[in-house]
């Protein structure tokens, strides 16, 4: 028996069903793209808050249980980071780099990237390159930084000098 000859005709209903199936499969990708932009925006708010010493803006994007690992090995809690920023123990002049790579798994986002940082820490001006990993978690519709770790690079990566 010839399968093609015995198949029911391709109807508008069949086409509509296939189209709906494809669209349903694409919805998670659309949501994922939106989440990537949202988490990048949250990270830009974090960076802006650090540069402008905006405690309220930084407080809004940091999770209460934050672990913030600096490139010199120090680790701070959210309270310690906010206190250091408020006291002027560290001031950030710039934090620039290419857009980070964003990976999202359900409600957790990993941002990995490279940045050039200029800051004054304990009276000493520093300019350095960092490789970092930032972990965000989506809670109540907002992305919050739960962990951050950076490491100092000896020299700027090729192509970013």
Automatic annotation (TrEMBL):
<dbReference type="Pfam" id="PF14534">
    <property type="entry name" value="DUF4440"/>
</dbReference>
<feature type="signal peptide">
    <location>
        <begin position="1"/>
        <end position="33"/>
    </location>
</feature>
<dbReference type="InterPro" id="IPR027843">
    <property type="entry name" value="DUF4440"/>
</dbReference>
<keyword id="KW-0732">Signal</keyword>
<dbReference type="InterPro" id="IPR032710">
    <property type="entry name" value="NTF2-like_dom_sf"/>
</dbReference>
<protein>
    <recommendedName>
        <fullName>DUF4440 domain-containing protein</fullName>
    </recommendedName>
</protein>
<feature type="domain" description="DUF4440">
    <location>
        <begin position="39"/>
        <end position="145"/>
    </location>
</feature>
């Amino acid at each position: 028996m010839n399968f093609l000859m015995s198949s029911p005709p391709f109807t508008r209903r069949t086409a509509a069903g296939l189209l709906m199936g494809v669209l349903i499969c694409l919805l998670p990708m659309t949501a994922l793209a939106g989440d990537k932009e949202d988490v990048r925006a949250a990270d830009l708010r974090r960076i802006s808050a650090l540069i402008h010493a905006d405690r309220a803006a930084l407080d809004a994007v940091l999770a209460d249980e934050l672990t913030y690992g600096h490139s010199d090995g120090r680790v701070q809690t959210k309270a310690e980071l906010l206190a250091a920023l408020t006291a002027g123990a560290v001031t950030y002049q710039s934090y620039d780099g290419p857009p980070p790579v964003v990976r999202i798994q359900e409600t957790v986002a990993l941002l990995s990237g490279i940045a050039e940082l200029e800051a004054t820490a304990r009276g000493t001006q520093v300019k350095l390159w960092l490789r970092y990993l930032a972990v965000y978690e989506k809670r109540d519709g907002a992305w919050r930084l739960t962990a951050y770790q950076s490491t100092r690079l000896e020299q700027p990566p090729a192509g970013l000098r």
